[in-house]
Structure formats: C-alpha cells, structure tokens
Amino acid sequence: MPENRVDVVLLSDVYDGSDARVIRWLRAAGDDVALNEPLVEIETDKVTVEVAAPANGRLTQILKQAADSIATGEVLGHIESAASSSPTTPGASPSVGLAVTRAAVAPVVTGGRAGETTGSARNLLSPAVRTLLQARELDATSVAGTGKDGRITARDVETFVESGARSRRIPHTAMRRRIAANMSRSVNTAPHVTAVFEADLAAVVAHRERHKADFAARGASLNYTAYFVAACVPAFAAMPEINSRFHASDLEVFEDLNIGIGTALGSQGLVVPVLRDVQTLDLFAIATQLGELLDKARSGKLSGDDMKGGTFTISNHGVSGSLLATPIIQQPQSAILGIGKLERRPAVVIEEGAEQVRIRSKCFVTLTIDHRAIDGFQANGFLSAWVKCLESWPLDSELLRRTSAS
User: Which helix or strand (DSSP H or E) is residue 132 part of?
Assistant: First the structure.
C-alpha cells in the first residue's frame, strides 16, 4: 500500500450490526477533500449520517457506489493524503476509517438555535449539518428533511437557503399515494407520445346556447364535456385502435366505448368515473349520465363500480384554466384525450373564397398515446375525425339522429 494512501473503511463501532448502504458520495473520484469535510452519506435501518473525510488529500477511488450494501470492515474508497496533513502517526496503520460514533452526531433541534441537543432521537444532525445550520443562523425545525425518517441532510439546508422560503410538510393521503403510484407506473410502462390539434368550437357553442335551457328543463346540464364525449363516437369509428389495450402478443381492441372522465376534487386529488357504452347514447343521455357521475364524484359517493372498466379517458383540464397539457395515460388503456381552455381568439377563415380574420371560440386538444400500441397515423386520424365532428356540429344523418335536442 502506498505510504500516503488512506483507506475509507466502515468501522465496527458505528452501526452495531445494523444493515447499511451508501446513499451518495458528496465528492467524485479525483476531487480534493479536506479533513472532516462531509464525504459520503450512509444509511442504516436506524439513521442516516454524513461522514467526514479522514484526511486532507484527493479522493482517488470510490469502491462502493450509491445503493451498494456495506458491512463492517469494508473499504469504501481511497484517499491519497497530503503528507503534511495525514492524521496517521508514526507506526500507525495508514488505513483510517470514517469514525461515525454516536457521540459525533447530535439530536435534531426542536427549538432554539441550531446545535442545541434537544430533540427526537430518531432525527439526528451530523456535525456537517450542525455547522451549516449554525453558519446560516437557522433553526433546524424550519428545514424540511428528506433523509430517512425525516433526517436533515446538507443538501436540505442548501435547498432551503437557495429557496429563501419557509415550508411545511403535508402528509400524503391514501388517494395521493395511489395517484402517485399509478402515474409512475404508467410512465414507466408506456412510451408516451402526444399529438396536438386545435378545434374551432363555434358550432358547438351556438348549439349549446340554443339547447341548454331545454336540457335543463328535462333534468340534464348541457356542458361542453358532453359534446367532447359524443365526438369520440365518430373518432373511434375512424380509428378503432385507439380504444384498445396493449398485450405482449397482440392488441386488444374494445367494441364498447367506456370513457373515463378525469374529475378534480380540489386539493384532495383526482377520480375518473366511467361513462359506459357511449356508442349507444345520444347527447341528452350523455349529458344526463355525465351529470350524475360528476355529482357523485364531488359528494364522495362514487362506488368502485363507477370507476371500473374504462377503455379510454378524457381530461378536460381547460375547466381550471389550462391552455395545453399532456395528461398521463390511465393504464392499461392506450390513449388519453386532453382538452384545453375554450377561449375566443383571432383566426383566419375562408369566407366567399377570401381569407378573413374573425374572432372564434377555439381550444387546443391533445391525444397522448402508448407508442407501443399506436402510431402517429392513428393518433392524427382520431383527432382529425374528433375535430371535424365538433366543427360541423350537428352532423347530418347518424349523429344528428342520436343528438336528441338538435
């Protein structure tokens, strides 16, 4: 072993047999390090600690990477120490461990200045974190910890200082945890690709103004989402593969259109009640059933059956002001339709063979697809048919017959 090499070793008096692993190195191989400078974060089943460099010098090699398990006596890396500052003494071994004893770690502060020793034993401050808090004149209770069991790390202190803001922790509800798991699973499962179109809703706006009072008298609220659902019928007829589920060996295309409607519940989260067999419904039936589902969602009365069996989803995010978004697919579906805010804006139209600028009611619409199952051709074909249906509302023949209030 070179005389100036210092081994970074896990010492036996640190963990008392607890399982341990490397979280991250705070310095990269080749970086200069200083004695007692935070060098690596280690996590056990009891606590997360930052450990300091055992010598001045240069970190020449990292042997244990992030997430690697480590055991007592294992060498984590090597430091080429500066001869004048090596902590070793004549006759001593050049192997110097990262001595993280309990005495070197102070409990997290629950009140007063950083560095005091009051607080919970499960949240401990490393010497480096205590030094940072003292240097910044911070109370540890004002910094949100992201380490194990809420432990504060040096990065947490840095992030707090950079943000210049106070924060608070809001425990996740069961719904939020489920949403997070589902969204992560979808993105990790399916390659998402999004096509963007623009729809002129002037015909829909005019139709709704003529018929919303009649619908209300018959017990149904005629909102724009009802039109968006109805327009999916000819769009699916043009591109049935959109209403599908991807399997390793084949694509399962559904005959029935069971359309989920993304419904925000404020800060509580999001639910997706399902309108079933949309291909059999006219506009009045769609509006009626949609109103019933939305009322149940907002009053917390949806049943498990109300949210099962969806084959496609619509996210009308524009109702809360968003112009454009790319929603995440509801697994195991193959696509999701996103509809932006309806607003009046100038547009070029053809009137009597000449281009004219007119104010039109328009919105952006997106179709996000699972690219394993669907290509851009089908996505664009679906959106083309969907936009055409709305821009020419009410359609003659079939859809006109099924739009009972037209």
Answer: helix 127-136
- Quick one: pLDDT at residue 204? 96
Q: Is 371 a catalytic residue?
A: yes
Q: 193 forms bridges with which residues in the sheet?
A: 369
Question: In whole angstroms, what is the distance from residue 389 CA to residue 378 CA?
Answer: 17
**Annotated catalytic residue: which of 250, 256, 371, 396?**
371
Residue 393 · residue 204 · CB < 8 Å: yes
Lowest average pLDDT, out of 177-181, 193-197, 285-289, goes to: 177-181
- Active-site entry in 68, 214, 256, 375: 375
Determine contact, residues 5/72, Cβ cutoff 8 Å: no
375 belongs to the catalytic site = yes
Q: Give dist(CA 128, CA 47) in Å, integer.
A: 15
Tokens 């039936």 — which residue? 285
Give first-to-last CA distance, the chain, whole Å.
89
* Residue carrying structure tokens 């999916």: 232
Separation between Cα atoms, residue 250 and residue 283, nearest integer Å: 34
Rounded Cα distance between 313 and 69, Å, is: 43
101, pLDDT greater than 90: no
| pLDDT tens by residue, 344-374 | 999 888 888 899 999 999 999 999 999 999 9
Enter the pTM of the model. Answer: 0.59
